[in-house]
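Recall the central idea of this unit: under ordinary conditions, the amino acid sequence of a chain determines the structure it adopts. In this exercise we apply that idea directly, starting from the sequence alone.
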Amino acid sequence: MKKIIPLIVLVLLGVLGLVFPSIDLSDLNKAEFDTGDTAWLLTSSALVLIMTPGLAFFYGGMVSKKNVISTMMQSFICMCLMTILWVIVGFSLAFGDDIGGIVGDPRTFFMMKGTLGNVAWGALPTIPLVLFAMFQLKFAIITPALITGAFAERIRFNSFMLFIILFSIFIYMPLAHATWHPEGILAKFGVLDFAGGTVVHMSAGWAALAAAIYLKGRKLQIHNPARISYVILGTALLWFGWFGFNAGSAGGANSLAAYAFATTTTASAMAAMAWIFVDIIRGKKPSAMGACIGAVVGLVAITPAAGFVSIPHAMIIGLVGALVSNLVVYLRSKTSIDDTLDVFPCHGVGGMVGMVLTGVFAHHNINPVVVDNGLFFGETKLFFVHMVALFAVSFFAFVGSLVLLKITDIIAPLRVEETDEELGLDVSQHAEAL
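Accordingly, the structure predicted from this sequence is:
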């Protein structure tokens, strides 16, 4: 009976499409769409989506050979589950009518209601509302996928699916609303997050740390990457897709998008080189793995700042992000915390570095949204706001994730049996193997 319940739930969700077809035309904002902006956001949405398969290769190449398929499958399934959730209620929870600055009204865009016709999101009047919804969906997809690296090689697949649903509803969507909705509590407080340093990387990073602590370590913590070539391919796809992630967050084909494009690739290049040079100082040979990890850390660190800081300051953000994350990876390795693929040191810490340095280097000349310049320019308000938000978001994401992990574990045990772990999750969870 247990095996049929998920299919029954899926069928019932499908029935919603018959009950709520959402075919009513809307003309609420008298929007005048710009073909250039629309084309760029369509392209950006596709670019952001390809980041999740890129992440699958990035993570899949790092784990042992017996866990490659299961690790990649965890990313792939996020594309499926999150799309269904987003269309039904997720977009409403993130961008629906404000409820207390914390979450959106789930009725606002239920089953994509109100997205058909000449209607746009208030802050982006030149693109269709449904395009904005689909662009934001891609962020909602990759965020839970990022977490998977922390508990790779030891989590039950069915339990994982339940956890990411709960995480998205109770952690990601409230953070997206609080940060990116005009009435959100963090937005009104003055927090700047251009493309998801707070919403995506900090939330995923803290959830990853919570999961690594809760699930405890693998029985054999031997790190033998299955395919370095997969890691290189994954990094290339992530870097390529990140231009949609950051430059697409400008909301149109404009000079800000071009500038965010430039800061993104500059920070990533700087971080990759910094990671290699730190490894050399420690007596290691310059490795493809190190270069790839460094490049991704640079992309993470620049994400919240991409459309708020100058290109020279993007170099500094990439450099500092790599140095701090590299140090935290080293320190983590000296503890008993088994964050398998160092999600917290790279994504969580990288996101926090980016958030702090946005408060240091943001300037009004880059983006008029910046009301108060960063600390580097002698103003303190933005920096103070970001430091307060840093602690608040960290506490919310970490404690909230621990609670959701416990709830999931009660409903469906998270940890695989020891024999299944030894056999490998590819075979024990999916009956497949390389």
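The radius of gyration is 21 Å.
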